[in-house]
Amino acid sequence: VNEDDVNVALDNSIQVSDVDGDSQILTFTVTGGTVSLGTAGITFGGSGNGSASFTASGTLANINAALDAATFTPTPNLNGTNAGGISFVSNDGTVNSNIASVSFNIVSVNDAPVITGSPALSVNEDEFYTFTPGASDVDVGDVLILLPEHCLELLPTVMWGLMPMLQLVSLMVH
Q: What is the pLDDT of residues 143-161, one digit of tens each?
């Protein structure tokens, strides 16, 4: 699973069996993200479907169909070894099953940095103006260097060795 994935399909071989064919109540505990199940014929409790802690109840057939449609969405920007985990227990109204659980790695993805701030669209004549944008990156250890695509320099035009005070300036684009 990659860190910014959404609705990653789980193995559709996850099934609940009950020799009596009784209806089931599954109790889910998820770390590092959320789980969503199919919804046909299922009643959800706890924090609800698509959360990290919920129950799902229904007939055995509906529970297994819901598990076939199960997906996992990792917590945004979370990554690491065994960062994701899903466990659940099933109850048929009489007894709990064994705990089924799996843990897995969430692979980091290089996220684009974010630049914040906007320079003024106009400035007052004869006043000094500076603009410094902000930047951030959720990836730990990334070094940010702000390199403007176009640097602007305003240089006065000098004619015959004199620099007139009201002379227009030329614009250089690097």
A: 877 666 655 555 455 555 5
